[in-house]
Amino acid sequence: MTTRKDAPAEPVIARDAPYHRAPAELKERIRMSLAAESAGTRNPSRWQPLALAASLVLVSVVSWNSALWYDRSANGAAMLDEAVDAHVRSLATPGKLMDVASSDQHTVKPWFNGKVDLAPPVSDFASAGFPLAGGRLDYLGGRPAAALVYRHNAHVVNVFITSAGGASDSAPASSMRRGYAVARWKQAGLAYEAVGDISATDMTTFVELMRKS
């Protein structure tokens, strides 16, 4: 007895499927695209100078931006290191902490006249726990800096103020550096570096007081 194998199924043809003719506009776009691609394939040398020039411009822009970012980052780190060093020296050297000792802002601010090329904003924050103790002349980045001295409980906060050289304002950047709370920002044409042996939270509070003064 012979077993019949199932016959293969016939393909299904969608005879009733609707047919849509491509619009003339679409045909023309396809034709132009193929023509342009064919021309570029036949004569690739015409595109090579443009591609090379574009690549050089891109590399130059990326390199310049990277160098600018690195320069700003490196300078900022160097300034903070100098500020920490100056803070440590002011505490370790007898008589170095203050050239003018006063909690009166009207005494401290005029003292800087003729000593630095700026008018540092001086305020007393005793009601917020950061009384003004005085000020001194210091140096950052090889330039004279106005150093304001504040106290917080038994701790000292030094604020170094220099000219920002026309740079735009920047939000405070706070961190811990060598065990000290540090912050730096730019405001109203001045650059600030604050250093203190206080907590990061207290430094944030102090910076906000300075920025609103």
Topology, please?
Elements: H1 24-42, H2 48-92, E1 100-101, H3 105-111, E2 132-140, E3 143-152, E4 155-163, E5 170-177, E6 180-187, E7 190-196, H4 200-212
Antiparallel strand pairs: 1-2, 2-3, 3-4, 4-7, 5-6, 6-7
What does it look like?
This protein has 213 residues and is α+β, with helices and mostly antiparallel strands. It has a single domain (51-212), classed as MucB/RseB, C-terminal domain (Phosphorylase Kinase, domain 1, 2-Layer Sandwich). Helices cover 39% and strands 25% of the residues. The chain has 4 helices and 7 strands, in the order H-H-E-H-E-E-E-E-E-E-H. The chain has helices spanning 24-42, 48-92, 105-111, 200-212; strands at residues 100-101, 132-140, 143-152, 155-163, 170-177, 180-187, 190-196. Strands 1-2-3-4-7-6-5 form a 7-stranded antiparallel β-sheet, sandwiched between helices. The termini are far apart. 21% of the residues are buried.
